[in-house]
Amino acid sequence: MTESPQGRSCTVSSKTEMLTELLEDLSRASQGNVQASVIISRSQGLPICSHFPPAEDTGLVPEEDVIAGRAIQIESQTIKVFKQLKRGPFVRMLIEGESGYVIVCDAGQDAILAVLTTKGANVGYMFFMMARHSKRIANILGG
Question: What is the structure's pLDDT at 60?
């Protein structure tokens, strides 16, 4: 058992519930533009928690393990590039594709948050919301 951000003791189950609530809130705040969101363990490269809004066509969105693996791969390469180009520590990245965005941001010592959105997403607002939620994720995960 660990302590929640509110100072209460919480189990792994309640941590998962809190993380799921954060991802669901992020999806709602995007006004339907989030197709998938995944919290990923940096050390293991595995999903910790994920949310796929029910209205999404599952054929258009990869499974959580694919998102997790690719996000970790992209993040590790980006960190190397940032060091070489002297851009400081990794904060977030945006990758734009023809049909949407992949946004990856730091979420504490051993986690990242990856979000797949439609092309209609307000990227500035997504950055803002992901920054807020990433801090909460870090607090829940203890780092």
Answer: 78
